[in-house]
Amino acid sequence: MADRKKRSKNANLRVFMTILVVVATISVMIKLNRNFSFTVKVPLKFQNLSEDQILKSASTNTVEVTGEASGYDYFKYRFFSQDFPIDLSQLSRTKGRSYYVFNNENDALKGSLVDSEITSFKPDTVFFDLDRNFEKRIPIIARYDITYAPGYGSLEGFKMQPDSITIRGPQSEVDTISRVYTEELKFQDVRNSIADSLNLTFVNDIPLVKLSPSRVAYALTVDKFTEGNVSVPLQLINVPANVTAKVFPKRVNVIFNVNLNNYEQVKSSDFKVVVDFNEVDNLSTSLTPQVLDAPEYVRDIRLSESTVQYLLVK
């Protein structure tokens, strides 16, 4: 008997709750079908900017729209809000300023409020700061700190591709830029070749200036190097007329580093070491030999003799 009363009481409660939900739902739907005033803040979307122009700034990025719509349409808009597009190719212009004026009758919101009656836009005008979109080519300056493991080095050195880029932005800012830099790169104890890419940047942030491309590829070819040396005869140049010149010693050792692949190719005849008599100093009897020619695949060239003695005989 007690269980029957309990079941009856629970059934009555469920019926009551169902009726309550139905009544509440009907009440909400009735209210949503009524028109009422609304105010929404709408983000602005700027589009159709000419390629030869750049938008430096706008007086606002949002607009507050007031109007009337059904509660149902407004409810949907709150969940699926839309932006308001402004066609930058159709701006009005006066006294050097570009602007757009909202029109209560012609301008409409998108989405569920597309048929709403708009009563005001706040602000009613958006002002734009436009500049000429200017471009020029500038060189890339690499920033790197590379140290090699003993016996290793790079014949070609650090290489970038490309070595210059195009920048585009307001002419007033582009005219002040003469170069762009890579991000800083640091390697130590390098033994193997490296290839990757780096971001490009200005010393100071210039957000309105765009880089094309914004990254640059780099490569560092690393080889095993060894030291070599060859004996080379000294060549005398600019010897005064009617004078016989002699130097001591007549040959010097050229000491250099070369990668292992090219070591066997190095010959004495590949080098030209000269003594220039235009550098004669009457207070000294010595001259400094200079290396004028050398193979492209050798580096760190030095001579066994920093100076040589000379004698002029008439």
User: Which class do the helix and strand fractions yield?
Assistant: mainly beta
The end-to-end span amounts to: 147 Å
Mean pLDDT: 84
Please write the CATH class name of the largest domain: Mainly Beta
Largest sheet: 10 strands, mixed
| Range of helix content | 10-25%
Overall shape: it is elongated
Features:
single chain, 314 residues, mainly beta, RNA Polymerase Alpha Subunit, Chain A, domain 2, 3 domains, 6-stranded mixed beta sheet, 3 helices, 51% strand
In a nutshell, what does this entry contain?
By secondary structure, the protein is mainly beta. The protein is 14% helix and 51% strand. The protein has helices at 2-32, 71-79, 171-174, and strands at residues 35-47, 53-58, 62-70, 84-87, 92-94, 97-101, 117-122, 125-141, 144-148, 152-153, 158-161, 164-170, 180-182, 185-190, 194-201, 210-212, 215-220, 223-237, 244-248, 251-259, 272-276, 286-287, 290-293, 298-303, 308-313.
Describe this structure in words.
The strands form five sheets. Strands 2, 5, 6, 8, 11, 12, 13, 15, 16 and 17 form a ten-stranded mixed sheet that branches. Strands 10, 18, 20, 21, 23 and 24 form a six-stranded mixed sheet that branches. A four-stranded mixed sheet has the order 4-1-3-7. The mean pLDDT is 84. It is mostly beta strands. The protein has three domains: 99 residues, RNA Polymerase Alpha Subunit, Chain A, domain 2; 80 residues, Beta Complex (RNA Polymerase Alpha Subunit, Chain A, domain 2), CATH 2.170.120; 88 residues, RNA Polymerase Alpha Subunit, Chain A, domain 2, CATH 2.170.120. It has three helices and 25 strands. It is elongated, with a radius of gyration of 41 Å. Helix content is 14%, strand content 51%.
